[in-house]
Amino acid sequence: MSTATAQALADLAAASELLAAATAALRDPELSAGHAVCFGLLLESLGAGHSRAQIEAAHALRRTGAHKLDQPSLHAVAQAAADPTMDNLAAAEGQTTAGRTAFRSARSFMQDWLDIPRNTAHDRLIQADCLIGGVDESGHPTEPWLEDLAQDFADSAFDPRLIAATALKLHSTRKDLPEGAGGAEQKQQLQSDARKLIHSEPKSARKHIASMVAQVKAGKRPLKALLDEVGLFRRGTRRGLIEYILRVLPSQAAAIEAHFASTGNPATQAGDRQGLQEAEAEFTGDPGEGWDDEATKPDWAREDGTDPPDPGAEPDTEPDTEPDAAGTAAEPAPAWEDLKPERRRLIGLMALLLKDHRANNGADSNRAGLATAQVSIILDYEKMLSGAPRYAASSSGLGFSPGELRAAMCNAGIYPVILNGRSLPLDLGRTQRLFTKAQGRAIRAAYRGCAYPGCAMPVERCELDHLDAWEKGGCTDIHSASLCCPVHHVERHCGLFHAVKIPGCRPMVLLPPDLDPDQQLRINTYFMTPEEALAAEDLAQRMTAQWRAGRLDVEIVEP
Predict the structure, then answer these.
(1) Can you tell me where the transmembrane regions are (predicted)?
(2) Which DSSP helix (H) or strand (E) runs through 250?
(3) How many CB atoms lie within 10 A of CB 304?
(4) Contact of 268 with 460, CB cutoff 8 Å
């Protein structure tokens, strides 16, 4: 065993001790905010390096045949790990045996001796195959399956966790790719598109890469095969709960996603808190008091019509909750916004099921929580005329097949939305302060969601943003409007990032230099399809290049 590798193992053991000591010291209650941020940044960097090292270790275990070590060698390894002195590390070099061994493969060794979960061990070996290389049956090394991604994996400038997750996704398509040159070409295209997404907008890359892989797996399957697998399946009872699996077509998923978005928005009929609270109480018997804080409720939501508490009044000394039978105060129910999104979605779904229940019993079914979901479908007219296999997508980024689109059009309420057109009087100038419904529909259809790169807030919960401030003489026009979620709307007006107006093009975003040292113009592609995301990234790169070359007259919007 070389002194260099023994020293590297000793350094690794020392690094583990240093990390434990540093973490203990940084638990200091007097830790400053700046040092807390440094703590987080350094830990994330260590986590990225740790993920890369785990895949390298899996590759090393398989390449060296570590599962063939004899028992004395394994005992020496365990002793060296517990006491990593140079002598113990030298003695841990070990001997492999050609006879019968306790472990059949590197994966079983990782699972049984290193206590790595089976699926995790399997994934790391696949990632090693894709990003480092493998070993053939004769023991000779093989090239990585994803050679281009392998270069990014070796580059410390990229997060190896995202690249490793991408490698797993792409590897899962290997049985769906055609044989021969056609399959190799399709794999290379997948790899190239994945790299573009990782390099340009890593926050949205996972979603788009998953969609790309899903398209490959579904590309050859006829609709009949898909319909044979859709449905609501009952898995059984686990930990006191009944589990179901729901498999739906993209067009059905779009309706579900739209309803989820409405349920999460208390300003919509589907998201009305009181109606949802009553809907859940019909199943649980729990009235759910405490979903809202009395001080923040609007007048119409107060059952007794009283005014909110006076902030300057003397504090109430009475307990807020009644003691239960055991004499302890009952915990107040969580506020609606504090509930898990999964629970809010279930409540909204159960409210829909209650509609028929109430109607059959003669009750009023026009209740909060029973609104029909609205789904926006955006068609690419040129792709449709060219006969492209996919030319429509929902506002949440779900792609539609032509058959699904035709079915949706038969049942849809059609709202004509012209993007970049001049046939509709959508601009109001100074005649009106707020955007009209027609303007809002056009803006939401065009921009899909929050403008901030990587933000996953759906369009239903975003706010229309004047890029030309009304109070400074700005107009209520389409070309000077953007969409922001409530958080990023405030952040833009606080100057934490800038919107950028570009003639004849959608607004883009310029992040501060500490978040984006390259100062690229950016578009949030989270709710786009992978094809749309790649096109949007190309557009942003072209606009950035023209801006830097002085060939593009842009306006960086002031807060």
Answers:
(1) none
(2) helix 250-263
(3) 4
(4) yes
Residue with tokens 């998953």, as numbered in its chain? 210
Q: Is 448 left (phi over 0), alpha (psi -120 to 50) or beta?
A: left
d(CA 242, CA 236): 6
CA 218 to chain centre: 21
DSSP SS3 for 224 = helix
Looking at 29-105, list the stretches that DSSP marks H as alpha helix, in order from N- to C-terminal side.
33-64, 71-82, 86-91
Q: Are 120 and 106 in contact (CB under 8 A)?
A: no
Locate 77 and state its tokens.
């390894």
Q: DSSP for 321-359, please give it.
A: S-B-TTSSBPPPPPPGGGS-HHHHHHHHHHHHHHHHHHH
Q: How far apart are CA 398 and CA 247, in angstroms?
A: 15
Q: Write out the residue range of the structural domain in which residue 489 sits.
A: 437-556
Structure tokens at 280: 């859940």
Residue that finishes a domain, picked among 154, 171, 188: 171
Q: Write down the pTM of the prediction.
A: 0.66
The answer to whether position 20 is within a domain reads yes
3-state percent breakdown (helix, strand, coil) of the chain, nearest 5: 50, 10, 40
DSSP classification of residue 97: -
Tell whether 256 is covered by a domain.
no
Q: Which region holds residue 367: left if phi is over 0, alpha if psi is between -120 and 50, else beta?
A: beta
CA separation for the pair 23, 397 (Å, rounded):
41
Place of tokens 């199943």: 283
pLDDT tens track for 462-507: 888 888 876 666 677 777 788 899 899 989 888 899 999 988 888 9
Does a structural domain hold residue 392? no
The rounded distance, in Å, linking the Cα atoms of 542 and 559 is: 25
347 vs 512: CA distance, rounded Å = 40
Residue 191 token pair: 């790899």
Nearest residue to 190 via CA among 177, 203, 204: 177
Q: Which of 171, 196, 224 is the last residue of a domain?
A: 171
Pull the structure tokens for residue 73: 């060698």
Helices (H) and strands (E) in the chain, counts: 19, 13
Specify if 532 maps to a domain. Answer: yes
Concatenating the DSSP letter of every residue in 137-205 gives TTS-EE--SSHHHHHHHH-TTS-HHHHHHHHHHHHTTTTTSPSHHHHHHHHHHHHHHHHHHHHH-HHHH
Angle 245-249-250 (CA atoms, 0-180°, nearest 5)?
Answer: 115
The distance between the two most distant Cα atoms of the chain, rounded to a whole number of Å, is: 88
Instruction: Report yes or no: 47 and 54 within 8 Å, Cβ to Cβ.
Output: no
C-alpha 388/C-alpha 381 separation (Å) is 10
Instruction: State the total domains in the chain.
Output: 2
